[in-house]
């Protein structure tokens, strides 16, 4: 894989390990921040507008200051692509927005915090190889929480679910929502091909409103419906996000039909 990782913070460009944020930053202390992961394909950021719309909507929902606008970000993104030597390559661009430095300790002091932005770009190739999965027995998405609607820094639940899967000999974990219905994967939205139609859990399940999920619905390629964790005969299940689309070969040891056009479906959304 060609290219190298670069980061930008407070006007400085460097390797990610060479930059740092203050220990007082609420993003570091309390995971009080938002991020977006944007695919760079052939040197171009894909679906940037949709990512920025979600970023700004989430900031407003969580009473944060508005993140940078597209006209401010685009020169930085193109500079990052050049510095990472990805003008014709592929990468994962992460845009970060923290509520900023805490004033004192604890969770108060929201209005005094000065927000902080940084970005990181790393080489990445989209992934389409099949995976095995389990339904997590320990972690559930809170369908009533505003945080479930936002891509926040707090990924502890996803990490625990992934560890649970790996300890069970699987690659990935599926999360249920508060009601016990299927919700999503640890870092991706869920798609199920059933009786010739693509289905995806509704936002009321607690799943993140993913950008690729939104494209599927916008183009009329999928519909929302509550789903159970037990596969039906002839089902094909996919996990999809901005960085790839992974077919599931089994869930909880039950074999699934392997969908062989995951990459074509994913690319049709870009």
In helices, the fraction of residues equals 10-25%
Radius of gyration: 19 Å
CATH superfamily caption of the largest domain: D-amino Acid Aminotransferase, subunit A, domain 2
The poorly predicted ranges are none
Count helical runs: 6
Q: How many individual β-strands?
A: 15
Number of domains: 2
* Shape descriptor: globular
**CATH architecture title of the largest domain:** Alpha-Beta Barrel
Oligomeric state of this protein: single chain
Which CATH class of the largest domain?
Alpha Beta
Hey, roughly how much beta strand do the residues contain?
25-35%
Summarize the main sheet: 9 strands, mixed
Strand and helix layout:
Layout: E1 6-9, E2 12-14, H1 26-30, E3 33-41, E4 44-45, H2 48-61, H3 70-83, E5 91-98, E6 116-123, E7 131-140, H4 156-167, E8 172-176, E9 182-185, E10 189-194, E11 197-200, H5 211-218, E12 222-224, E13 236-241, E14 244-251, E15 254-255, H6 262-267
Parallel strand pairs: 7-8, 7-14, 11-12
Antiparallel strand pairs: 1-2, 1-6, 3-4, 3-5, 5-6, 8-9, 10-11, 10-13, 13-14, 14-15
Provide structural commentary.
The protein has helices at about 25-30, 50-60, 70-85, 155-165, 210-220, 260-265, and strands at about 5-10, 10-15, 35-40, 45, 90-100, 115-125, 130-140, 170-175, 180-185, 190-195, 195-200, 220-225, 235-240, 245-250, 255. It is of the alpha+beta class and about 270 residues long. The protein folds into two domains: about 5-125, Aminotransferase class 4, branched-chain amino acid transferase, N-terminal domain (D-amino Acid Aminotransferase, Chain A, domain 1); about 130-265, D-amino Acid Aminotransferase, subunit A, domain 2 (D-amino Acid Aminotransferase, Chain A, domain 2). Strand 7, helix 4 and strand 8 form a beta-alpha-beta unit. The chain is globular, with a radius of gyration of 19 Å. The model has no long low-confidence stretch (mean pLDDT about 95).
């Amino acid at each position: 894989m060609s290219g190298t990782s670069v980061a930008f913070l407070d006007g400085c460009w460097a390797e990610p390990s060479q930059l740092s944020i203050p220990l007082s930053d609420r993003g570091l202390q309390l995971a009080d921040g938002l991020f977006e992961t944007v695919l760079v394909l052939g040197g171009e950021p894909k679906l940037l507008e949709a990512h920025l719309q979600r970023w700004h909507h989430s900031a407003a929902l969580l009473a944060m200051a508005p993140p940078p606008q597209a006209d401010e970000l685009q020169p930085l993104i193109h500079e990052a692509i050049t510095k990472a030597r990805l003008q014709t390559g592929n990468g994962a661009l992460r845009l970060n927005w923290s509520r900023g430095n805490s004033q004192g300790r604890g969770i108060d002091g929201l209005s005094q915090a000065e927000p902080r932005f940084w970005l990181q770009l790393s080489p990445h190739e989209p992934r389409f190889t099949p995976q095995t999965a389990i339904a997590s027995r320990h972690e559930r998405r809170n369908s009533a929480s505003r945080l479930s609607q936002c891509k926040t820094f707090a990924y502890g639940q996803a990490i625990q679910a992934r560890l649970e899967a790996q300890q069970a000999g699987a690659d990935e974990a599926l999360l249920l929502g508060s009601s016990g219905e299927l919700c999503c994967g640890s870092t991706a939205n869920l798609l199920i091909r059933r009786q010739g139609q693509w289905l995806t859990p509704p936002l009321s399940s607690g799943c993140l409103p993913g950008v690729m999920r939104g494209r599927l619905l916008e183009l009329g390629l999928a519909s929302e419906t509550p789903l159970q964790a037990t596969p039906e005969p002839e089902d094909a299940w996919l996990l999809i996000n901005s960085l790839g689309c992974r077919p599931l070969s089994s869930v909880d040891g039950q074999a699934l039909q392997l969908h062989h056009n995951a990459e074509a479906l994913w690319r049709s959304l870009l």
